[in-house]
Specification:
This protein has helices at residues 14-31, 51-55, 59-66, 68-83, 93-100, 112-118, 124-142, 158-167, 213-225, 243-255, 263-273; strands at 5-10, 36-39, 104-107, 148-149, 171-172, 182-185, 188-189, 230-234, 260-261, 278-286, 289-296. By secondary structure, the protein is an alpha/beta fold. The strands form two sheets. Strands 1, 2, 3, 4, 5, 8 and 9 form a seven-stranded parallel β-sheet that branches. α7 (124-142) packs across α8 (158-167) and α9 packs parallel to α10 (243-255).
């Protein structure tokens, strides 16, 4: 079976949902493609990301390298000052239109920034509560079944993986890695498959932002080289400021006749060929991303 590209779209802010998702939706609909939408269930408190400057070595350098202050700052501050925190899942018809068009939805933490900042300090019971609340709120508001879950910033561990097992979700995408797998930690084997992100995100590209042509070419080459590539786009980046990057990747896949699938489709395709291997999940660094992330060993 020919390879395919798994495509997930993270929607981390209200501004991304309102101003970025429509462009991405048009891009997908024009090509007859679908993606997995990752949505937080709670309020957009992206302004709290500034706390990471104090707590996480290398985070300020990342902000400067990727021009993140220019991209996220004005719209986020305006939203917080003008209307107060809002929920991404309440932003209107663009979400329901995408779901009606065949895109699937996954949970992406309750409050995205809080999870990203605090996951490894949260008690297991709080982790489970946030996962359960996220899934419940998304299904109630959008009236659709949630397919999976992806921990914000790939900040995940035993408590998160165990919560997915308890909820019986079809898959998680809480890790970085090489191919779908069954996760194991501390000798405990979980039953919820992981469909990891395998390709760098835009803010991890060596040349920083705006994306350099050589970096985009490198992404295409990685799709060609990897057996089970999965790309994570962001409504705030590819949707608002750099749509040409995702356009290029999708055109490359069309030229090479590489199907573009949701993560559910990616997992089904993998299982049609082989059984899922068991892989240890460890905390490891990712090039050009500060801190450690949950990674397929």
């Amino acid at each position: 079976m020919a390879k395919a590209l798994g495509l997930r779209i993270d929607v981390d802010t209200v501004a991304g949902a309102v101003h970025g998702l429509p462009a991405l939706s048009r891009m997908l609909r024009t090509r007859g493609l679908n993606a997995s939408l990752f949505l937080p269930g709670g309020q957009d408190r992206t302004v709290l990301a500034a706390l990471r400057i104090l707590r996480q070595p290398g985070y300020l350098a990342k902000l400067l390298r990727t021009s993140a202050l220019r991209i996220y700052g004005p719209s986020t501050l305006a939203g917080m000052l003008g209307r107060g925190p809002r929920r991404i899942i309440d932003t209107g018809s663009v979400l329901t239109d995408m779901l009606c068009a065949g895109d699937e939805v996954a949970g992406h933490g309750l409050v995205h920034t809080e999870w990203h900042n605090r996951y490894h300090r949260m008690p297991p019971g709080e982790v489970r509560r946030q996962v359960v609340t996220t899934i419940s709120d998304i299904e109630k508001v959008l009236e659709t079944r949630v397919a999976g879950f992806g921990a914000p910033g790939w900040q995940a561990g035993f408590a998160c993986l165990h919560a997915l097992d308890q909820l019986g979700l079809a898959w998680g995408s809480d890790t970085r890695g090489r191919h779908p797998f069954l996760p194991m930690m501390h000798g405990y084997r979980f039953k919820t498959p992981q469909v990891p992100t395998t390709l760098p995100t835009l803010d991890e590209l060596p040349g920083g932002l705006p994306p350099k042509r050589a970096d985009v070419i490198g992404l295409c080459q990685s799709i060609d080289r990897q057996d089970w590539p999965v790309y994570t786009a962001h409504a705030e980046l590819e949707g608002r400021f750099f749509p040409e990057v995702l356009d290029t990747l999708l055109d490359f896949c069309a030229t090479r006749r590489i199907p573009v699938l949701t993560l559910s489709g990616t997992l089904r395709r993998y299982l049609a060929e082989q059984e899922l291997p068991v892989s240890e999940v460890v905390q490891a660094p990712i090039p050009n991303r500060p801190g450690l992330v949950a990674t397929q060993s």
